[in-house]
Amino acid sequence: MHLYLITSAYSYESEVFKNNSMENTKEYQTHMQEKPILSIIGEKVALGPIRRELIPLYQRWINDFEVLRTLHIPRPSTFEEIQASYEADVAAERQRKVVYFTIYDHDTLQPIGRTDLCNINYRDRTADFRHRDW
Question: What SUPFAM superfamilies does the entry give (predicted)?
Answer without folding.
Answer: Acyl-CoA N-acyltransferases (Nat)
